[in-house]
Each structure stands twice: as structure tokens, then as C-alpha cells.
Write a structure and sequence with these properties.
This protein has 464 residues and is α+β, with helices and mostly antiparallel strands. It contains 12 helices and 15 strands. A hairpin with a 4-residue loop joins strand 13 and strand 14. The longest helix is centred in the N-terminal third of the chain and has 45 residues. The protein starts with a helix and ends in a 12-residue tail after the last strand. Keywords: Coiled coil. It comes from Sphaerimonospora thailandensis.
Length: 464
């Protein structure tokens, strides 16, 4: 068995051990939450977890040794090729070299991506050999410059999806970001290059201290326990249908299609973060009920403070002053802006005028924070917040949270993949699909709050 095979085998064994450890940690956390836990079982689980930790430490050290040995072997192999006696130096024209060959798709020749999209359609749907050759050249260039993404795009066939050229991604990224206000505001991470899950640690039992009753008494002993949250990687896909005539004969239609696809991608991602069953923000946030048939902004304000109090109590010293965030539907933000008042907060807030009910930055939708609440909490306005809830199907929700505890993993530099299919051949139409991968969690700690109820039905703009 080669060193590389040994290393792969060892990593598989480590993954199995980590899964066992996580199972023990979860059972241990459940037992410790009971009023009368089985102490013998607790001790057994702690020992099993400690034993697994020791095994994992040894395996990690062995993996480091394998990796170091592989690196030394590679270095020796390179050196051997350089010093091999009797080898004639090849002539200039016999050496393969990396030069300044131009990219197949580049901004000076295809500034809006029309040639790229037309080639995608012709290669996937029309089996155009010249278009296929250009796309294959593009794939080779991407493999050199962004090789870590190619495994995500290519499948078992010739190619299932194509990476969108980076200059087009940069050009149209603003359209994607405008449709995802909440996603832009939370904590961002790079998505790992491989795997269908990402992992994040969560402490379940903290260490403890105690005051000695007398000199020489034993110090309080409570070990720290944690568990790994397993978060699935999901696929986000957007699609756009175009007539074959527009693809083949129309100038300017394809770049508009690209903009629409990017915008749809960003909007769908943001919608998922808020509305997905079980894991979305609306599903995991703890409810703060606001019941009022004649709601006013003055009456609504204490509910926001109740929600923020819940966030701070849940996180304590883990929350920072600049991490609080309020997320609401555009209609709710405008309703708060229209209110007039002769009352102001009893306690003046840092950076806020004593007689101000808040601050509107005057930004347009999708441009970041729209303003500040009277206590200085930033506001994100997001049309993906549901507005058809409740028995009257006319209620929205307002979320308050620590954005540091809302995690989103995405591809670095947000490369999207694209393909085309002639699923509507009878009507002479071509379907373009863009897709990418992401993972998220708002549930590492139960901190988010949502204000919901009849007080958040369709607002009346009456100055109150």
C-alpha cells in the first residue's frame, strides 16, 4: 500500500472515530440535562470520549508523519530529475512552458458574456463542435486557475456544468447581492472544497469554579464538553427560459438573462436562509408574541426590546455590541418610519439624538443596513421575510438576533456553475440553469427571537 493510500485510509478511520465521539458527547449532554442522571453511565461515556480523544491525537500525529514523508518524497523526486547525469538539456522548442496565452472568454472580447452564454447553449443543446471546443478550452483554463472548484462543476460525463468566467461573476455579482440583504449581513465562511457536510463546534457543558469553604478543600472539578453540529451542504439553482431564436439571433438578450439568473440565485439563497422548514430563521427563532388589533409603533417598540433581551440572555458574554441585528419586511420598516411621536427613550442611546426615534440612512433596497432603531440596533430590510402568516394570512415577522451566530458557508469568490437544456424543444425554447453550493445554520445556540402575532398584520399608515 502506498503512502497516499495509507493516509487516505487513516483519514477514513479518523472520520469514524470522530462520529463515535460525537455520539458519546450528545448522549452525555442529554444525561447531564436530567434531574437524576445515571452517574455510572456518565462516567462510562466520559471515559469512552477521553479514550477516543487519545486515539484521535495519535492518529493525527501519524497523519502528520505521513504527510511530511510524502512531502520529502516529492522533494527528492524533483531533485532526482534535476541532477540525473547524462540528461541533455532539451531545446527551447521542446519544452512545455506556461506563457501569456489569452483566455478563451475575456472582458475585452466578450464584455457582457454573450459569446459565453451562446456557446453554452450551442454546446449543450445544439451539439455545436466549435462551441464545445471553446468551452473545453475554458474548462482547461479554469482547471489551472481555479482547480479547486472543478470537481464541483464536472460530473461523470464530459461535463455537467461549467464555471462562469470570473470577470462575469464579478460583473453580475451586484445583482445577486441586491436580492439577499439578510445573507449579506450575517457571518460568512468559505465552503470547504469537498464533502457534503460542514461542521462547527458547540459547547454543551462549560467549566466551573467554586469558592472554597475552608483552606485545603478540593477545587471545583467540571470538565468542558462540546459536540459537533453537522450541517448539510445544499444546492441552490436558478433557471431562465429563452427562445432559441433569441439565443441564435438576438443581440443583448443573453446578458440580461445572466443578470436575471444571478438575481434569482441570490434571492433564492436569502429566501432559504429565512424560510426553510426546520432550519430557517423563522423556524428556529423563539417567538415573542405581539397581539394587538390596533397596533402602533410605540406599542410595538417594547416587543423589540423583549426580543433583544432574550438574545442577550441566551448569549451573555458571547454577544458583542455590534452584532445585534433586526430584520424586517419593507412594509414594516416603512410603517415604523411613518410614525410620529412626542415620546423618546428614557435612557439616551450612544450615538443617537435624545429626541430621535431612530435613524434612516436613506439607502435603497439591498444596499446594506437601512438605518438604526432608537437603541442603535441596525436594521436590514428584506422582502424575503414572510408577510402571509397568521390566521388572516396577512402577518409578517420581525427578527432580532446576533448576526455573529448566524453562519453561512459559500464558495470563495462565489463561482457559479451553468448549463443549458432543451427541455422545451416543442416550443423552441432553451432552459439555462445556474447553480452553486452553500450551507448555513442559525441554531448553534438558541438565541434568535421573532416578534409575531396580530400586531404585525398589514400595517395602516396613520402616523402612529
Amino acid at each position: 500500500m502506498t503512502l497516499a493510500q495509507l493516509l487516505a485510509q487513516l483519514r477514513g478511520q479518523m472520520a469514524s472515530k470522530l462520529e463515535q465521539r460525537n455520539t458519546h458527547a450528545k448522549e452525555l449532554a442529554t444525561l447531564r440535562g436530567q434531574d437524576d442522571p445515571d452517574e455510572a453511565r456518565v462516567a462510562e461515556l466520559r471515559k469512552a470520549k477521553d479514550d477516543l480523544d487519545a486515539e484521535l491525537d495519535q492518529m493525527q500525529a501519524r497523519a502528520a508523519e505521513y504527510e511530511a514523508e510524502l512531502a520529502r518524497d516529492d522533494a527528492a523526486d524533483r531533485l532526482a530529475r534535476e541532477v540525473t547525469p547524462g540528461a541533455d538539456k532539451p531545446r527551447y522548442d521542446q519544452v512545455a512552458r506556461v506563457g501569456a496565452e489569452a483566455r478563451t472568454y475575456r472582458p475585452d472580447l466578450d464584455p457582457r458574456g454573450q459569446v459565453f452564454l451562446r456557446d453554452v447553449a450551442r454546446a449543450f443543446v445544439m451539439r455545436d463542435f466549435a462551441a464545445t471546443d471553446r468551452l473545453m478550452a475554458h474548462l482547461r483554463e479554469e482547471r489551472v486557475e481555479r482547480g479547486e472548484y472543478m470537481n464541483r462543476a464536472t460530473g461523470t460525463g464530459n461535463f455537467d456544468g461549467l464555471t462562469v468566467p470570473q470577470y462575469l461573476t464579478d460583473m453580475f455579482a451586484k445583482h445577486a447581492k441586491a436580492g439577499r440583504p439578510f445573507a449579506n449581513a450575517i457571518r460568512s465562511h468559505d465552503l470547504p472544497a469537498e464533502g457534503m457536510n460542514v461542521y462547527i463546534g458547540r459547547g454543551t457543558t462549560g467549566t466551573d469554579t467554586g469558592v472554597q469553604s475552608a483552606q485545603g478543600d478540593a477545587a471545583t472539578d467540571q470538565g468542558f464538553d462540546d459536540t459537533l453540529l453537522t450541517i448539510p451542504v445544499q444546492t441552490n439553482a436558478g433557471q431562465q427560459t429563452m427562445s432559441r431564436q433569441a439565443v441564435e439571433r438576438t443581440s443583448g438578450a443573453l446578458d440580461v438573462t445572466m443578470e436575471d439568473l444571478f438575481r434569482a440565485y441570490g434571492t433564492k439563497l436569502d429566501h432559504t436562509l429565512i424560510n426553510q422548514a426546520t432550519t430557517g430563521l423563522s423556524a428556529v427563532a423563539t417567538a415573542v408574541t405581539y397581539t394587538d388589533t390596533t397596533p402602533t409603533v410605540e406599542e410595538f417598540w417594547p416587543k423589540i426590546q423583549e426580543g433583544l433581551a432574550g438574545v442577550e440572555t441566551a448569549l451573555l458574554d458571547q454577544v458583542t455590541a455590534d452584532s445585534f441585528l433586526a430584520v424586517m419586511h419593507p412594509r414594516r420598516w416603512r410603517w415604523m418610519n411613518q410614525a410620529l411621536t412626542s415620546k423618546w427613550p428614557l435612557i439616551q442611546q450612544p450615538g443617537m439624538d435624545a429626541r430621535s426615534g431612530g435613524l434612516n440612512y436613506g439607502e435603497v433596497y439591498g444596499s446594506g443596513f437601512r438605518g438604526l432603531l432608537p437603541d442603535g440596533t441596525p436594521v436590514v430590510v428584506d422582502a424575503n421575510v414572510p408577510a402571509g402568516l397568521g390566521t388572516g394570512t396577512n402577518e409578517d415577522e420581525v427578527y432580532v438576533l446576533s448576526r455573529d451566530e448566524c453562519h453561512l458557508w459559500e464558495d470563495p469568490d462565489a463561482p457559479f456553475f451553468i448549463r443549458a437544456e432543451e427541455t422545451k424543444a416543442a416550443s423552441v425554447q432553451i432552459l439555462f440553469v445556474v447553480y452553486g453550493y452553500f450551507a448555513y445554520t442559525h441554531a448553534r445556540y438558541a438565541q434568535a427571537r421573532k416578534i409575531a402575532g396580530t400586531g404585525l398584520a398589514t400595517p395602516t399608515f396613520s402616523g402612529q
